[in-house]
UniProtKB/TrEMBL annotation:
Taxonomic classification: Bacteria, Bacillati, Actinomycetota, Actinomycetes, Micrococcales
Segments for region (Disordered): 1-28
Bias-annotated ranges (Low complexity): 1-13
Pfam families linked to this entry: DUF6459 (PF20060)
Protein name stated in the entry: Uncharacterized protein
């Protein structure tokens, strides 16, 4: 299971503690080698025997989850049309979203209404199943509310498709 939390980063002055006798050049080389995400990723890939395909697949799932989760809440709020997700969702999911939009907006129309604040994704939680599908949750923060959506994403004819969606 992987978790991606999106939050403000705190600035630190010196992440690597320095020795009194250590030169600035040595400290810079240690700092750059320890802070490099690629350096850590290569080490972890070697330890856990991960392949390049896994990273590209993970990146694709993160992008799909992020965009679909935002779009789902825009549909429910009435800012977006359900038909815009037809290329990535099964028809049963689209029908579920239409019903949910009717319940929450009480006036679902085919044309999306112009909207302003659509919320911000606070975190993504991704879990790969043994069958090859991904179970993902996204937590969105609005002005006065926090909501979550759960997605099941499966490979389908060489691309990814959302096969189940739940709003919380």
């Amino acid at each position: 299971m992987s978790t991606i939390t999106i939050s403000a980063r705190s600035a630190t002055t010196d992440p690597v503690p320095r020795n009194v006798n250590q030169s600035a050049h040595e400290a810079a080389s240690i700092s750059s080698s320890c802070e490099s995400p690629a350096h850590l990723r290569r080490a972890l890939d070697h330890i856990f025997h991960r392949a390049e395909v896994c990273r590209t697949e993970h990146r694709a799932i993160v992008e799909i989850t992020h965009s679909v989760a935002r779009a789902v809440f825009e549909i429910v709020a009435g800012y977006r049309s359900v038909s815009q997700l037809a290329f990535v969702m099964e028809p049963s999911c689209i029908a579920k979203l239409q019903r949910r939009a009717l319940l929450e907006t009480a006036q679902y129309t085919v044309d999306p209404e112009p909207g302003t604040a659509h919320g911000q994704i606070l975190s993504l939680h991704l879990d790969r199943c043994f069958s090859g599908c991904w179970e993902c949750t996204a937590i969105l923060g609005f002005k006065n509310r926090v909501r979550a959506v759960a997605l099941k994403i499966e490979p389908w004819h060489g691309r990814w498709q959302v096969t189940d969606v739940e709003l919380i």
